[in-house]
Amino acid sequence: MIRVVLPAHLRTLAHVNREFDLDVPGPLTQRSVIDALEARFPVLLGTIRDPLTQKRRPYVRFFACEEDLSHDSPDAALPDAVATRAEPFFVIGAMAGG
């Protein structure tokens, strides 16, 4: 189990609180977390990553332990603090504008 925090619009779709527990089988990576999110909340399919390419959506970012993990390999191990539940895994909706 890990702790996950979703942005407000995805929380609304998934009907969850700001932070919730998620069971992630296998090695703890961005890919395994998103796989587990989409399995538990099918309504999130296609909202975090493209269903065909499996690449992260442009305005979605991943953070843990105050680090932007968005450009790391989706198969890179997440920080130990996420695995031990000391820190949550954040999915953030990025902002753009000018």
Condensed summary:
The protein is built from three helices and five strands; from the N terminus they run E-H-E-H-E-E-H-E. By secondary structure, it is of the alpha+beta class.
Describe this structure in words.
The protein is α+β, with helices and mostly antiparallel strands and 98 residues long. The radius of gyration is 12 Å and the shape is globular. It starts with a strand and ends in a 5-residue tail after the last strand. The mean pLDDT is 94.
List the helices and strands and how they pair.
Layout (H helix, E strand, L loop, with lengths): L1 E4 L2 H7 L4 E4 L7 H11 L19 E5 L2 E2 L11 H4 L5 E5 L5
The oligomeric state is: single chain
Judging by the overall fold, what is the CATH architecture? Roll
Gyration radius, rounded: 12 Å
H/E order of the elements?
Answer: EHEHEEHE
**Total of domains:** 1
Largest sheet: 5 strands, mixed
Q: Could you tell me the number of beta strands?
A: 5
- Percent of sequence in beta strands: 15-25%
Shape estimate? globular
Q: Determine and state the CATH class.
A: Alpha Beta
Structural class: alpha+beta
Distance between the termini: 39 Å
Low-pLDDT sequence parts: none
